[in-house]
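Before the break, one more example. Copy the sequence into your notebook; we will annotate it together after we see the structure.
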Amino acid sequence: MDNTKIAVAIFDKLAKVYQEKFMDVGLYHQSFDLFCEYIAKENATVLELGCGPGNITKYLLEKRPNLKIMGTDLSPNMIALARINNPKAEFGLLDCREIHTIIEQYDAIMCGFCLPYLSKDEAVALIRGASKILNPNGIIYISTMEENEDNKSGLRKSSSGDEMYMYYHRTIDLTAALEVAGFKIITLRHQDFPTNDGLKTTDLIIIAQK
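Here is what the structure looks like once it is written out:
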């Protein structure tokens, strides 16, 4: 079983717990607002990768009710919750590593904290695939935990006792992958994320345009 399948099994098991803990996306409102502002088209189509219980979807639709969002995830239980939380959006099962199989075109892609479950090579492939299914001037939002001295890729144990592999990514690697894929970076920011283990975790947020 690969690391992604292990993560999916855990998220499927703890979907409701995750929803209770992370439904409030207040820490990221500012960057989500920027994402919405950068989408110029009125009735834009948005593909969300790793949508979880639809927490980001819910906020985006509150800001821009006209967005046509297709949320995707590998966890059936997460998809079930997302549909309940967002009856006006569409949802379906998708392995984001298979983004190259998508034939539809989108005006924007939301990838909020999907990369922590992808290796560097998988993240680069995702960015490359995203470029191919975005319309001209399309927008992509990427967030992940940045690799630093305290936090590096490896197995992490959750409060439930379940263990999964977490990938931390370097800014230089993601920005290079975006530029090679034909994106222009329009917003890049770092922000500290509060943790209970005393380690400094830094979130990396990038918004880029094709």
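The mean pLDDT is 90. The chain has one domain: 3-209. Try to locate both features in your own notes.
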